[in-house]
Amino acid sequence: MTVAHISSETAGFVFITRTISLHLNMTRQFLICIVIVLQISTAAIAGGFQVNAQSQRHLGMGHTGTALFFDASSMFFNPGASVFVDGKWVITGSATFLMPRTVYAEPAPGVYQAAMVQNIGTPFGVYAMYNKQKWAAGIAVYTPFGSRAEWPSDWKGNFLIREINLKTIFVQPTVSYQLHEKLGIGAGFIYATGGFALRKGVPVQDQNGDYGEGNLSGDARGFGFQAGILYKHNDALSFGASYRSAVSVEVNGGSAEFTVPGVLQEFFPTTTFSTALRLPQVINVGAAYSTDRWTFSSDVNIVGWSSYDSLRIDFADNTDKLEDISSARMYKNAWIARVGVEYRILDKLQLRAGCYFDKTPVQDGYLTPETPDSDRIGITGGVTYKIGENIRMDASCLYVEGMQRTDTNIETGFTGTYKSRTIAPGIGFTLKF
Q: How far apart are CA 398 and CA 387, in angstroms?
């Protein structure tokens, strides 16, 4: 080994040790951000990234459905409406292709910008039910929460987020009963399952100048219920209300791995973590009015996001720098207002349109690039073609425009302006026999 080589290694070691004190504080901020995203990921299993794309026919009408009873997807929108669905056996399937785009810009006078890597999300719903006299029973499998966000690995906020991938599936066996020719009730048990993966840069460098990385992954389980009631005033007018309970989810044995210089490894060992939180309840109310050719529908969704007051994580192995963390979120309750219309051109062909306004639950001071959320306006359109007596094909397209939003996160100090929009085409079918 040459003297020059020894000097190079020594210089690298000195560089690393001199930066430990500075970077440990930064790394603690990184861990706080991990907590925020982890809890959002957990919430995504039953409440964080809400994906309203559970039926193509309903999505074409602004995703209204609390007072409608088109098909088996009523088990999601309002279990009390299911008993009014035509058909002895009814099977409905739906898939939507979410194509979001989000751009970040640093505050003036800065000119730096970055855009999320383009990815496609694929929420789906499959529903099967059986009607007999005054009873209806079935099972719904759907993905009401989930997201994927990927930023360039070298972007300005890479210590906050490089990539997050959230997946969730709800399984809901459901029973409905017609109390009266005008009144139906229903309820379903919810089993929630899902997982996530997360990558972040760690603000410490090795002797080659490469930054470290943190990787978290875990699975979660939770339970809840949904109940609903539908009042059919007459053949034209109906009213509905449904309630989805809060869902308590837990992550146990999640994996936490850190790639950092060797001299810091003892502070950030490979370990596991656990966390738990209560996810928000959702209340839906709606009304619908139909004529021979037209159907008008409106919904209001109220989401109890205020349950996100603080977030906690428990690492199995703690060190002087890797401590259990609690992070404030202070979400507020939010609401969504929806309207939709359907026009029956022919018995085999229907057109529809809708729109909605979605109020963000994220308060000023708590915006992050993992969830660059803002108030949103959605515009929808759709079409149905009845192929035969027992089969119908549906298609829809959703366009979502997020309001531009500038904020500074209280805990991390990260400031920026975010602008998002999403295009989401989808296709579905319904079988009745």
A: 24
Share of the chain above pLDDT 70, in %: 87
Query: Would you state the structure tokens that stand for residue 286, as one six-digit string?
Result: 């709606």
| Residue 333 phi, psi (nearest 5) | -60, 145
Distance CA(58)–CA(63), nearest Å, equals: 5
**Strands, E, within 72-210: which ranges?**
89-96, 99-105, 113-115, 124-132, 135-142, 147-150, 163-180, 183-205
Cα 38 from Cα 314, distance rounded (Å): 11
> Rounded CA gap, 185 and 344, in Å?
28
Residue 311 has pLDDT above 50, yes or no: yes
List the structure tokens of 346. Answer: 């022919």
From CA 23, how far away is CA 21, in angstroms rounded? 6
Q: Which of 324, 387, 361, 426 is nearest to 34 (CA)?
A: 324
Pick from 316, 196, 195: which is nearest to 253 by CA?
Answer: 316
- Give the model confidence (pLDDT) of 3-58 as tens digits: 333 333 333 433 333 444 444 444 444 444 444 344 333 333 223 357 888 999 99
Each domain of the chain, given as residue ranges in start order, spans 8-432
List % helix, strand, coil for the chain (3-state, nearest 5).
Answer: 15, 55, 30
Cα–Cα dist 284/44, whole Å: 20
| Pick from 372, 382, 371, 356: nearest CA to 406 | 372
* Residue 49 identity: F
Pick the CATH number of 8-432 from 2.40.160.60, 3.30.565.10, 3.50.30.50, 1.10.3720.10: 2.40.160.60
Cα distances from 190 to residues 53, 104, 222, 310, 352, in angstroms, run 18, 37, 8, 25, 30
Segment 247-263, tens digit of pLDDT: 877 778 889 888 888 88
